[in-house]
Design a protein that fits this description.
Elements (H helix, E strand, L loop, with lengths): L5 E5 L2 H12 L4 H15 L9 E8 L4 E7 L13 E2 L2 E2 L2 H5 L10 H12 L9 H9 L1 E2 L2 H13 L6 H7 L11 E2 L2 H13 L2 H4 L2 H10 L10 H5 L4 E4 L1 E5 L2 E5 L7 H13 L6 H22 L10 H5 L1 H8 L14 H4 L19 E8 L5 E9 L7 E2 L2 E2 L35 E4 L5 E5 L7 H13 L5 H6 L3 E4 L2 E5 L6 H9 L4 E4 L7 E6 L2 E6 L6 E5 L4
Parallel strand pairs: 18-19
Antiparallel strand pairs: 1-11, 1-22, 2-3, 2-12, 3-8, 4-5, 6-7, 9-10, 10-15, 11-12, 13-14, 15-16, 16-20, 17-18, 20-21
């Protein structure tokens, strides 16, 4: 029997309350995750929502099973590799971000339905009631949401597109922290989904409104009602790798979950001769650098390209790759698992990756009263997605997660745009199991390309540096991708790490703040230890064992 109670860690107190309401009714962790995310789309629209997509990793304790539900957005049937190119030059990110071209077929509602049919305990319609109530009665605008709005007027069309302007800038003034905001359109959208299922979203009036918003100027897109009607989630296997006595289990491509296994495995070798904590930090930096180089080169949509994932995660390759640790000032290059295993190396012909992935995402971690668990990371991509509002929710700009630039030498890119393809994602919902196979940890974060680094920090912090969940989350964020190493330094915290890495020769960039939003649950013998990232507005709540 599961004797640890239940816990929710998510990015907003309203979402946590919605999840707890489901758990108190005997709901599965999946029921709680759906209710929480439906609320997040209302109170945290800058990060995720039903106009976007996400990944859900689900653990069923009684069956000892782990499944990955892929609700990533899809490119339209008519997508072309050069759709963000103009006269031989790539469209700049801001123009692409705000275009209709950037909108992919949303996956969130289909993800809800797929996961609920397989795992849910409660009635489908019940899951949406907290969000419907809050949308009708109104919620208090949070400081994080309010602080985004003045800045977005300088770089986006959020205050220009009629629907989004009326909602976020009523009477021409940005919503302020403490304002009461109602969203009856969102309530009506969710009510229809609750009554009719996902077909209410992907067909009929709502689908037509989505297409109309996508085809709005400037730079209209070509998403069609057929693209929406044809959208399907994908049920994929999770993938696991050992880290000492524990097992890290995570999501496969198009997710970057595999990077967690790579970073942990590389770190294990690189830290073997560490004499102190500073040496361990340097090992963690180099593990990231090598793992990112491989992730950037090889990962994409597994239904469209061949990804040598098992080779990349093979302990023998990781040991070999750790031996390719480069000098701190050097730029790491991708490895060659095909050569190491003496196989044909077709994928080494991929052109350099050019993807820009912006941090507009959320993560939630949940354990229910039976020990079932969910790690869910969801997104609309950049803040407020494409700034196109329909039915009370924002549409994603997920197509900019593809490599937008077509290489001039004609070489293909692993993460290239193509019809029906899903863009590579840095989202990495992850769980850890102990030597007996019992759940030990759930983790994940928003943060664009920095997600693998943020999540890996929480794993290494708990499993190797013996920190509590909150201590691991509070650690300064360290992001080592390419030739630069970003070190979070806030009020002097992190300065010692930055100074030491500079002394070792790394190209250090000090950052006052990093955009992580880690939500972590650690299972200890004496109960559940939860953490919410103080860099955002998350909270943790629990139901004690036996309650």
């Amino acid at each position: 029997a599961w004797g640890h109670g239940a816990m929710v860690a998510a990015a907003n107190p309203h979402a946590v309350s919605a999840a707890m309401e489901m758990l108190e009714q005997g709901g599965h962790a999946v029921d709680a995750a759906i209710a929480a995310h439906a609320v997040l789309g209302l109170v945290e629209p800058q990060s995720s929502g039903i106009g976007g997509g996400g990944f859900m990793l689900v653990y069923e304790r009684a069956a000892d099973s782990l499944v990955f539900h892929d609700g990533r957005e899809q490119a339209r049937a008519g997508a072309t590799v050069d759709m963000f190119m103009r006269d031989g030059e790539v469209m700049n990110f801001y123009e692409a971000w705000q275009s209709g071209l950037a909108v992919g077929a949303p996956g969130a509602i289909a993800l809800y339905e797929t996961a609920h049919k397989e795992h849910g305990n409660l009635d489908w319609a019940e899951l949406f009631q907290p969000a419907i109530r809050l949308a009708e009665q109104g919620f208090i605008v949070s400081p994080r949401l309010a602080n985004f709005l003045p800045r977005l007027t300088k770089v986006s069309l959020l205050d220009d597109n009629p629907q989004s302007a009326a909602y976020f800038y009523p009477n021409g003034e940005a919503l302020k922290a403490g304002d009461l905001r109602k969203n009856p359109d969102y309530a009506e959208t969710l009510r229809r989904v609750a009554q009719e299922g996902s077909s209410a979203f992907y067909q009929g009036e709502i689908a037509q409104e989505i297409v109309s918003a996508v085809q709005m100027q400037p730079n209209p897109g070509l998403l069609t009602t057929e693209d929406l009607a044809n959208y399907r989630t994908v049920r994929r296997d999770a993938i696991c790798g050992n880290f000492r006595e524990d097992k890290i289990c995570t999501t496969t491509p198009p997710s970057s979950g595999g990077a967690q296994i790579m970073i942990a495995g590389l770190y294990d070798h690189l830290s073997a001769d560490a004499e102190n904590q500073a040496d361990k930090v340097a090992a963690f930096i180099d593990a990231q650098r090598l793992a990112y180089a491989d992730r950037d080169h090889f990962f994409g949509d597994p239904d469209a390209i061949d990804i040598p994932l098992q080779d990349l995660l093979d302990p023998a390759y990781l040991q070999h790759r750790a031996g390719q640790r480069v000098a701190p000032a050097a730029t790491p290059q991708h490895g060659d698992p095909a050569a190491f295993f003496n196989r044909q190396a077709a994928l080494n012909e991929w052109a350099a990756d050019t993807t820009e992935e912006v941090p507009g995402t959320t993560h939630l971690s949940i354990i229910d009263g039976e020990g079932n668990a969910v790690a869910m990371t969801a997104t609309v991509e950049a803040p407020f997605g494409s700034s196109r509002l329909v039915g009370g929710f924002l549409l994603n700009n997920q197509m900019t997660d593809f490599a937008r630039e077509v290489p001039k030498d004609g070489r293909p890119v692993a993460n290239a745009i193509a019809p029906g393809r899903r863009p590579r994602s840095s989202m990495s919902p992850t769980m850890v199991f102990d030597a007996e196979g019992e759940l030990r940890m759930i983790t994940g974060s928003p943060g664009g390309n920095s997600i693998p680094a943020y999540v890996a920090k929480s794993i290494v912090g708990v499993l190797d540096w013996n920190l509590s969940a909150q201590q691991a989350v509070d650690l300064p964020n360290l992001v080592a991708r390419g030739e630069k190493v970003r070190v979070e330094v806030v009020d002097g915290v992190g300065q010692d790490i930055a100074d030491d890495l500079k002394t070792r020769g790394y190209n250090v960039q000090e950052r006052e703040g990093e955009n992580s939003g880690l939500h972590v649950i650690v299972v200890n013998p004496d109960g559940l230890d939860g953490a919410a990232d103080k860099r955002r507005e998350g909270t943790v709540d629990r139901i004690p064992a036996g309650a």
